[in-house]
Amino acid sequence: MRRISILRATATVVMTMSAATLSGTAFAQDTDISGSDLIVYTPNEEGMLDSLIPVFEEESGVVVQLITAGTGELYQRIRSESGNPQGDIMFGGGAAQASANIELWSEYVSGNDADMVAAGKNTSGAFTPYQADGSNLLVNTEELAEIGIEITSYADLLQPELMGRIAYGDPTASSSAFAQLTNMLKAVGGDYESDESWDYVSALVTQLDGVMIGSSTQVAQDVANGEYVVALTYEPLSLNFVRSGAPVEIVYPSEGAAFLPATIQIIEGGPNPDAAEAFIDFITSEVGQTIIAEETAGRPLRDGIVKPGLPAFSEFATIAEDGDYVAENRDVIVERFRSILEAQF
Hints:
The chain is built from 12 helices and 12 strands. By secondary structure, it is an alpha/beta fold. The chain has 2 domains: about 1-135 and about 260-300, 3-Layer(aba) Sandwich (D-Maltodextrin-Binding Protein, domain 2); about 135-260 and about 315-345, Periplasmic binding protein-like II (D-Maltodextrin-Binding Protein, domain 2), CATH 3.40.190.10. The longest helix has 15 residues, at about 45-60. About 45% of the residues are buried.
C-alpha cells in the first residue's frame, strides 16, 4: 500500500507495509484483477485505512495507492481531472456531497446491496453507503473541569467561558463540518431555513472568535491536546481519540444527532474500473463490514453486524436529516454560512 498525503500545496509520500490473512473471498469478479493497481482518494483516518486496505490487497492481489486529503480538496481534484481521470475510487465523505456531484461517478451497485440495512442501500445507482457517521461534540474533560461548566447540548456552546475555545472545521470545504452545520440547523430550529436555526449559527460563529480549522482530524486533535475545550466533530474520529487514552469524551447534543451514511463511489472514467468494483464489493462484504465494526471507529451498515463500544441509537436523542433537501440546497446553505462569516470577520 502506497500512501500520499496532500496537505495544502505540499505533498509527502509515506510507504507503509502491513499484512493480514483472512480466509474466504469478500468479492467475486469475472475479470482477473490480481496485479492491477487501484488509486483511492480518501479523507478517512489512518486507522481505518490500515485495517481495511491490507486485507483487500491480500485477498485481491491489487496494489492500492492512497491519496489522502480533506474531502473538499479531493472533490476539487477529481473535478479538475475529469477530462483525464487519475483516480479510481472516492472512499469517504457524506452522501449529500456525493449526490451534489453525482456526474463525477460511474454507475455501480454491488451484489452486496441486498445484505445492507435500509440506510446502507445504494439508492442512487452511483454512490454506496458503507458506514454511518454521526455528528457529536468531543469534550476535553480536564479543560472542562478547569473552567467549571457543563456541556450537554449545542446551546451550551454559547456559554461565555467557551469564547475562542471551540474547535470547528470549515463547512464550505469539509464534509464533516458541513454535516455538523446541517445537524445544528435541524436540531436547534427544526428545519434548515428558520431564523432560530441561523441565529444560533451566527452566535456560534461569534464564539469561534475568527478561527476555523482546515483539517477535520486536526479539529479533534486540538481538543485532545487541550488547545480547545470542545470540538464539533463526528463519531468515528471521536471514538479513535477516546480509545487513544486522551482525556476526552463523546457528547451527543441533547437537541439531537443526525447519523448520515459515508459513501464510496467509482470515479467516472478512472483507469482501473474492475479493481474499483471489487473494492466496493469488499468494503460492503461481511469481511469488510466486520473489520469496520471491530477494528475501526465506524458503525457498519451491513445487516446483522453490530458495533461494540458505542451506545445504541435508543440511548441518546437522534434526528432525521432531509437528505434530498440538503443535497438540492447545499450551495444555498454554504453561501448563507459564508455570508455570516463575511459579516462578522
